Amino acid sequence: MISFSVNRQGVNLDVDPSTPLLWVLRDNLGLTGTKYGCGMAQCGACTVHLNGEAVRSCVAPVSRAAGKEVTTIEGLSPDMSHPLQRAWIAEDVPQCGYCQSGQLMSAAVLLRENPRPSDDDIDQAMTGNICRCGTYPRIRKAIHRAAGLMSTGGAK
Amino acid sequence: MSDNILNVSRRGFLQGIVSTGALVLSVRMIPEVLWAAETSAGSHADRAVLRPSVFVGIDTDGTVYLVAHRSEMGTSSRTSVPLILADELDADWKRVKIEQAMGDPRYGSQDTDGSHSVRDGFTTMREAGATARLMLTQAAAQKWGVPVSECESDLHVIVHRPSKRKAGYGELASAAAKLPVPKKEDLQFKPKSAWRYIGKGTSSYDLVDLCTGKAGFGMDARLDGMVYASIEHPPVLGGKVKSYDEKAPLQVKGVKQTIPIKPFTPPHHFQPLGGVAVIADNSWAAFQGRKKLNVAWDNGANASYNSDQYKKELQDTARKPGKVVRNIGDVDTAFAKGGKVIAADYYVPLLAHATMEPPVALADYRDGKVTVWAPTQNPQAVQETVGEELGIPKENVTCHVTLLGGGFGRKSKPDYAAEAAILSKAVGKPVKVVWSREDDIKFGYYHAVAAMYMKALVDEKGKPTAWLQRSVFPPIGSTFALNTTYGDAGEMGLGWTDLPFDIPNHRAENGPAENHVRIGWFRSVANIYHAFAAQSFANELAHASGRDSVEYLLELIGPARIIDVKASAPDYDNYDGSPAEYPLDTARMRRVVELAAEKAGWGKRKMGKGSGMGIAVHRSFLTYVATVAEVEVDDKGEVKIPAVHTAVDAGTVVNPEATRAQFEGAAVFGTSIVRSGAITAKNGVIEQSNFHDYPVARMNEAPYKTSVYMVDSDAPPAGVGEPGVPPFAPAVCNAIFAATGKRIRELPLSKSSANT
């Protein structure tokens, strides 16, 4: 049995501890907002927060989550109020949208650690997240916009 | 779209599985109208009170159901096509619910391919909208006892002009439903000045869901009691299983069984590749079980395929006379006269689509019928392929179309959906087939590798008086028919037979090439290598005579005129567009060149050391695109693309912001082609496997800024999803030449000898 918390709710699972957290979230818990893209920490589609840090859940064994707090896209905000989500909508970021959960989760950690990132900071932080549709310029703009929203009082 | 989120537990679909001892998690649910209604019961539009067309239904509460019959893979088809209908209907977009059509021929072609969804839908959607609007207008006139001519629509209401009385669409729906459906010739379309949404556009219908993890991709489809499958495919095309270990995979916790899948009967078409499937109760266990299969393969004839050798063969073929696909004047006589001749070879490798969502499908077979949920660009092809594989009529195959995590042509081929159906029948449960990234890269329907040979005779001013172009590539037709080695008219028309240059002696040829892997459509298809060769070579000629690239390109295009391509290339199909509606118009081509150059500040800005600008122009999918790329090349040869300026004439544009996004995306897609994309084979086995050895552009490699300038046009709508791709690579390579003097004739840069 492995116990941890997902989006502030406790879970207690009987799974092979070497199973990547990604597949436990998706197949066991039905939290399919977190995406499979490569299985080797190359594309970032599976990015979640483990105790607040961005991790690639496709290579993180679920045992690593034991006793910790996991946040997925479903838990980023209960009501779309996260400044990044609002900025993503304002900039019409997604095309197919498959990678965007991971993009948002990576960007959320960036902004928490660096509330006013430069273009270079953004490139640095987001380079691990692939978008095959090519929404990068809009992602960059949206992160700047979200940073602005946060500095002027954040939500709402 | 939170108002659409309904629990569909009555169908047991997408229910979260909560494990033993877990607290109840708030599992995601799916917007009901994303999925068409169950099986044969029709759509919500069909069940609405007023249903003047298969594409629209209006209920008494005023809800307008619009059917999206094309797939959503990021190009906004699912929004932009219904938006046309909503405009003509004068519907309030906030009261529209979009439902995704199942595969069903009554919608006409649902093939979301060839950048033609808006183009095809423009008339159909306006007819459906005008039909509904007329019926509502007639119902209102009847209700008020006034002439129809005194009534007109406004936003979601019919208004009686003289009395200013109003009635809502919901209020009128029942009465309108009693009226006969008007004839096409009685319909009146809104003038352009009255368009509400066309030309203004709107955000994706799924935007909020895409930012909250709620959107339903194929990868996310679930059914109660379903199992997961991962398939070990033959490493070489046409390979067969000799033996495998049935028992070892069962040692993996969660693995339930192994099932062989028969090899395809050539030609491969959309058939599954064959191999061995591992069935498990989760995706990961299925992946792990595969590692223990220890399959012995009979690799077959394609095991002799090596990309290095094949490349030489293609290049040799490109140097020999080929099949003439277009001829103007007499190049042989012109070349024989002698003079300054310039020639060059170009090469573009195999490319993989690498959609962020790998192929995946869920199928549920019961009693001779099967229901499939798949991220597919063509649900009718799913019905046909699955039907053939299972030996059941295609009418017994229900295909629900999920959102697609990227398509780019890969998901036009439903081999993965057929795998799920075959396995569901074998297992007796719903089966979800999940391809790994490695499966995706190694078992694609690749963009063809191509070699081009170009030769021109130029006069004293550098203008060509004779031009010979030859391309050689394994054709897409090899997927559908054995021994197909020449491109068909469609492929040759993708930027080869339609090159709109003003040259008195001009011949286009195509040489034969055998396929050893599956070849398929890939965003903009043959236009990629054809535009790379033609636009790079044009630039070489400009430099060879010391001419400005833009001025030279305009001279090559020549004066404004309509080119009758069929006069010199009888098989030319003009993307199935009629020459009357969609002529090849060099005035439009000149205009995008001039616009891109002007916006980029061509010739006006001083570029620093290692910096340069390059231009390319190309018409594809009936859209004219000119791209100016700016590059910076450092001492190590690393190329950055700080800015891209793209001018687009796509005729009438329905959704400008979504269109802009497509051209921004095309620049990034193009960057992958230029920088890094290459699939190669050794002994028939694809050498790449994932994003570490098949890299695609990342944020720090992509163009920093892509500016898109759209020409205002009353011409009928043309494509926008693909046409941004073809001119991008030559524009960048021409810029690299301007910056460094190094000519790139082979893609990608990482493989090019010019990259030092």
Uncertain ranges of chain A: none
State the CATH superfamily name of the largest domain in chain A: Beta-grasp domain
CA radius of gyration of chain A is: 15 Å
Shape field of chain B? globular
Into how many domains do the coordinates of chain A divide?
A: 2
If strands are numbered along the chain, what order do they take across the biggest sheet of chain B? 10-11-8-18-15-16-17
- The name of the CATH superfamily of the largest domain in chain B reads Aldehyde oxidase/xanthine dehydrogenase, molybdopterin binding domain
Tally of DSSP β-strands of chain A: 5
Helix count, DSSP H or I runs of 4 or more residues of chain B: 18
Give the CATH class of the largest domain in chain B: Alpha Beta
Q: Order of strands in the sheet with the most strands of chain A?
A: 2-1-5-3-4
What does it look like?
The complex is a heterodimer of chains A (156) and B (756). Chain A is an alpha+beta fold and 156 residues long. Chain A folds into two domains: 2-75, Beta-grasp domain (Ubiquitin-like (UB roll)); 83-151, [2Fe-2S]-binding domain (DNA polymerase, domain 1), CATH 1.10.150. Helices cover 37% and strands 13% of the residues of chain A. Chain A has six helices and five strands. Chain A has helices at 21-28, 73-76, 83-90, 100-113, 119-126, 136-151, and strands spanning 2-6, 9-13, 47-50, 53-56, 69-71. Chain A has a five-stranded mixed β-sheet. The mean pLDDT of chain A is 96. Chain B is an alpha+beta fold and 756 residues long. In chain B, the strands form eight sheets. Chain B has a seven-stranded mixed β-sheet, sandwiched between helices. Chain B has a five-stranded mixed β-sheet with strand order 13-21-20-19-14, sandwiched between helices. A four-stranded mixed β-sheet of chain B has the order 1-2-3-4. In chain B, α3 (117-144) crosses α4. The longest helix of chain B has 28 residues, at 117-144. At the A-B interface, β2, α1, α2, α3 and α4 of A face α5, α6 and α17 of B.
